[in-house]
Protein 1
Amino acid sequence: MIKKYLLVTKPGIIFGNMISVIGGFLLASQGSVDFSLLFATIIGVSLVVASGCVFNNYIDRDIDCLMERTKNRVLVQGLISPAITILYACLLGIAGFALLYAYTNLLAVEFALLGFVVYVGLYSLYLKRKSVYGTLVGSLSGAAPPVIGYCAVSNQFDTGALILLVIFSLWQMPHSYAIAIFRYKDYLAASIPVLPVKRGISVTKNHITLYIIGFIVATLMLTISGYAGYSYLFVAAVVGFGWLIMALTGYKTTDNKIWARKLFIFSIVAITTLSIMMSVDYSQVAAPESLLTFVWP
Ligand code: HEM
Ligand SMILES: CC(C)=CCC/C(C)=C/CC/C(C)=C/COP(=O)(O)OP(=O)(O)O
């Protein structure tokens, strides 16, 4: 009974985002951690992400039934009624936003709202089905959780927050493209315009290589800008160049599916490792200038 209500929230994605929330939060904390704020931020963001995922699953029922990977999902099987699904998604979202509003700050709430609107509104409702740029727009939503974690502490969108946004946005492109390659038949069957389907696997390999190079530069900028230390820099360089070398083997591989699945698995290892390293190897920076002070209208 309960299991279907857990599965419909995409626990794997929630867990992955939780790691990046903690990474952003601890990076901004710079050693002085407010654990009650951390707990509220983790739960609040997880509830908002869960809400977004339930809405996404509700919206995607018609295409999920066409893909091997998703055809057995809870809503495709009709295990939860549409009305209950919508109510459940709303309750998760209300609880998450209320928690963030009560215990964090308006800037964090605004980034949660941004991530939610981009994921459910722009990506799920429209771009995923209509545009090859859906993944690029979707990556903005996936970059929201670590920025929420960071801003829950900093209460300002400074250079550190911007670098986090860029790191996580760039990371998601090879992550998603690798999936789109090893799940190529699924996306073709569901007519989802991901890059490999629209422009071919060779072009996608070029994009993957360029995005990983951009990702490496962005990850190193955290240390160069004084937000993270040299242990983080070393690990970021090893992980980034390891991922790049793995990507480059794609130009010689005889089996794109196996190569892409390895690249996807490495993407999870990469982002998890970096989230941990930025949590433990921050550096004491002077109070950074705010780049962007969102004000609530
Ligand atoms: C443009 C953004 C993203 C896209 C299009 C995307 C797409 C996907 C897809 C389709 C899967 C299922 C792969 C499979 O099972 O074959 C997946 C798995 C996964 N993704 Fe992403 N993802 C994105 C962002 C993220 C973010 C931001 C995180 C966390 C930081 C994340 C973490 C994971 C994890 C942990 C898995 C494996 C667990 C699972 O399959 O549920 N992804 N991703
Ligand atoms: C604050 C907030 C709500 C942030 C959103 C965090 C989040 C869920 C990021 C993932 C973004 C994304 C495009 C996932 C793929 O969805 P998909 O529909 O392509 O995946 P699927 O085919 O497995 O359903």
Protein 2
Amino acid sequence: SSKKRGNIYLSGAGPSAWHEEYPVAKGKRQSPVDINTNKTKFDPKLAADPLTIRFSDSCCQSIVNTGISFQVTSNGAGCELSGGPLDSTYQFAQFHAHWGAYLKTTGSEHTVDGVSYPAELHLVHWNTKYDDFKDAVDKPDGLAVIAVFFKRGKEHPGFGKIQDLFSKIPAKGAKVNIDFEFNPGLLMPPDSENYWTYLGSLTTPPLYESVTWIVMKEPLEVSVEQIAILRTLLWETPNGVSQMYNNFRPPVPLRDRVIRASFG
Ligand SMILES: O[B-]1(O)OCc2ccc(NC(=S)NCc3ccccc3)cc21
Ligand SMILES: [Zn+2]
């Protein structure tokens, strides 16, 4: 039943079976991938035209439980991305995350030299050459996503303000307004100059090959309790409603791609 199939990670064989319904899952520019730092290529052009990341205090409107993550949605006002690998201006649409299970080291989608982080944040932007997000979402240059790894360390009070809303979105489709100022720029690591970039895809069905990935080299520190709080979100599983975790796609083959680095 559709209820049973509700959870794309836990129904059937999970991510390894997605190709049955979405053949593009075995495509040439799928994500996530392992970032083998011995095979990345420094591109001085990326440093010559620095990535310009602009966020504002007034750009986050609401938070929703999508059934596979939380999602903070934005009308994009004053939040734009350009430069670096991008040939156009991209507007901020939403951020969400992927994470692992208690006491496990997995959780992120991208890995670095085969190593996972406990969680990975995605800040999603769409190319303003298109009319809107839905028009951009399946175009080869349609989306640009900033990925920020989470690592266990000191508490991140800013992210904590978003997590305080989790109890208000207990089930798939639940949504509340964000009635305080939250600048997503708070979620960027101290050094956001150093990143890797490559052409890839959505990491969840429909897996559109429409994403220019910008993966920050430096992780963001959050507390171990904050990682645990991610798992207090709830989702449907074949065995009923339970804690949300392991909502990540493991890395897929890089195929004929080179990951470029903005740093030497
Ligand atoms: O790979 B990601 O998890 O991180 C980056 C990212 C961006 C977007 C999505 N998926 C979306 S927006 N699907 C809904 C939708 C699907 C098709 C049309 C409109 C709307 C997933 C990811
Ligand atoms: Zn994502």
